[in-house]
Amino acid sequence: LAATMLLVTAVIAALSVSAVSQAVLSARARDVRSADHAIAAVQRVSIAVRDAYAHQAHTVILQNRSHLGHYQKALHDARAALATARPLLRGRDLETLESIALGLEALDENFTTSLLPHVEGGGALLAEAHDRALDLIVEAQEGADRIAAHLEAAARAAEAATRVAERWTVALQLAVLAVALLLSAAVALSVDRTISRPLLGLEAAARRLAAGDLTARVAPERDDEIGSLAHRLNEMAVELDLREKRLLDAERLAGIGRLAAGVAHEINNPLGVMLGYARLIERRDDEAIRRDARAIVDEIARCQSIVGGLLDLARPQRLNLADTDLAALAHEVAERMGDARRVEVHARGDVVTAVDDGKVRQILHNLVQNAIEAAPMGAIMLDVDGDDPQAVHLRVRDQGPGVAPELRPRLFEPFATTKAKGTGLGLAVSASLARAHQGELILVDTASGACFELRLPRSPRPAQGGSA
Predict the structure, then answer these.
(1) Are strands 343-349 and 380-386 parallel, antiparallel or unpaired?
(2) What is the rounded distance in angstroms from the CA atom of residue 290 to the CA atom of residue 293?
(3) Which terminus of the chain has fewer CB atoms gathered within 10 Å of its CB, N or C?
(4) What was the pLDDT predicted at 325?
């Protein structure tokens, strides 16, 4: 905007320079024309005065009145020329012109009173009158020459000033044009840097998003409308990515649900029969047979646990929300899990929010159980953070080996586990329950061990009748 305003200012300056220069050139041209007109008028005065004297001289030479009419006409023309020249002269030139006018009148008076009465008689009086007329005409011619010389000098000065003004006009216009061109280049570069390039970046990111690349982002380098648009585009990309992941999770859970329903129907009945026979065998007196029967019972229970976990993961989560003290809930879970080990609970801030306490207890139980299994000799830290006005954060930390990097991308997927006897459904079910609360379960990066954080919003809006 500043560069554009400067460019507009430069254009206005160029127009102003042109207007002022044109006015100066017009004034100089008027000065030259005025000088030329004044010179022409003075020359007419000089010619008319000489004509008047010439007819006086012919009258003296011919010693008759034959040129008297011509003289009267020349005298009239001289007076008219003087009247024309007066408005065109100023200062000393006008004073000199008035002296010429007085000389003309003296010349006429000398002719009328001294020359004309003695023209036919001649003599000394005629010669004396003629000498006086000659002095007057010489004085008038010299005055006319002085005026003409002064006016010519003024005309030359005006012409020189006109040429200087023309050169300055051209120089100023070229300078203003150069400034305007530089400002135009600055505006073009500024528009390219601040508008065109960011818009091209936004267009490229939008094209990638439209092509399905939900990782496309724009670096919001500016704090203006385009930067705000970049922020909105990035937020939209994040939201689209989350929605796509949720849709994929929903599709996967729906498939698992269909599979789980079929597995439960086809396997639960045979497992129940097998479990019944195993219980009967377990009652025999033979210790070896009882030991084998107990192993069969354990494995059947594990199969039933897997089927139950699949059903829990796939079925829609219906929540019974009530205000719950999450610190008290964390202490309860810690007491139940802390048989031979110590689970430390720390709470701060407002930790009361509306949740389904049974579902949250299930999540915490699973996280603490995993921590105990990962670090059987280390302490387990369960932090309940209520300082965030938007949500309550529950973190479970252990001092174990942490989560392997290759497992992190699919950590919350079903059957993702490194345990020899684990089903790999605990974290998947816990993440599903967190999403049902409109919260999330994430793995937090730590220097050592593993840290899982459960975020529960203070005003959850769970989906009714749907799976998370």
Answers:
(1) parallel
(2) 5
(3) N
(4) 92
